Amino acid sequence: MKIVNAIIKPFKLDDVREAISEIGVEGITVSEVKGFGRQKGHTELYRGAEYQVDFLPKVKLEIAVNDDIVDRLVETITKAAYTGKIGDGKIFVYNLEQAIRIRTSESGSEAL
Question: How many domains does the chain have?
């Protein structure tokens, strides 16, 4: 099993959610986060005054899946979140040692 973390632009969330649903992914955890990568933030104009925005709003997706669907999931997220502009995001894949469904005590793949 793997856990896939994706950091994407907030306005792409619905596109990504719909795309991963089409490939059979059933569960997702979404968090609103702030951060920056290579772009190091940007400047904005408010009432004539410029100010620096260091941390940009992003959305973090956490998705636990079986090993056989990981490559398809990463490809799907990449296509759905793509804008071609700086700050599109990143995807991280981690090993998931165990998953347990609290309600039924199912573990492993059955818990996903």
Answer: 1
